[in-house]
Amino acid sequence: MAKTNLLAADGGFEQPCPIRDVLDRIGDQWSLLVLDALEGGTKRFNELMRTLGDISKQMLSLTLKRLEEDGFVRRTVYPEVPPRVEYDLTPLGHSFLVPMKGLVAWADEHHRHVCEARTHYRTGAR
Amino acid sequence: MAKTNLLAADGGFEQPCPIRDVLDRIGDQWSLLVLDALEGGTKRFNELMRTLGDISKQMLSLTLKRLEEDGFVRRTVYPEVPPRVEYDLTPLGHSFLVPMKGLVAWADEHHRHVCEARTHYRTGAR
DNA sequence: CGGGATCCATCGTGATACTG
DNA sequence: CAGTATCACGATGGATCCCG
């Protein structure tokens, strides 16, 4: 029973289940994209804005803060003027990229099937 | 540059990027849990309710509909009374479990680190 | 430049009641 | 049993202005 039920409401009613906890964070619209953008190395705030393309300052700021809080991203402030802030992945963040890549690869590979399924669903499934 | 930027706003401004498209679906609060619950085999509606434990009927219904539409789940209705409806994974759904397991395993393994990072963040990081 | 604060629109989710 | 309909609310995300 403990086989695959890591996703149950709790892992046995202790903590709120590791997977849910993690997914709640990286399950938002931007976290994965930011992590991906940082894979290439250190980036500054506006650099990330340009890389992501269509994220607002607020969401980038918020996402980075959450990722920093969870230990995925490191934030480095240089006491200069004008201010300079750099973001890069921690070892934890890097390690997360591994399973993430698996997910991305799957999505890239099977996106066609999903689209076909949607079409088929509408045309005549029911 | 096309190396890892599969997550950019689009894969080159064509479709809304496969990864975002997939993530928007399975990134909600329940999809992964439902898929996991179905790994064991065919299940009925109320069976899933019990397995998930704390999902509402509405959300289970909605989640299943989306998963069915995207081709992850197959819905089989038996014209009986009282009604009987069974859900199980399609091949696509099964194939998705592979990368998902990777993510689950990571979450299970590194959850401690994330918790520690959060604590450390609050106590004195800034 | 790198955000924080505020306001607002929308979405996701839950609770409840009702239906076939 | 297996949902659907309705209501309500908090979270999510965008836009804008402001500040050091």
From TrEMBL, chains A, B:
It comes from the Bacteria. InterPro entries: HTH_HxlR, WH-like_DNA-bd_sf, WH_DNA-bd_sf. Keywords: DNA-binding, Transcription, Transcription regulation. SUPFAM superfamilies: Winged helix' DNA-binding domain. Residues 17-115 form the HTH hxlR-type domain. Pfam families: HxlR. This is Helix-turn-helix transcriptional regulator. It comes from Telluria mixta.
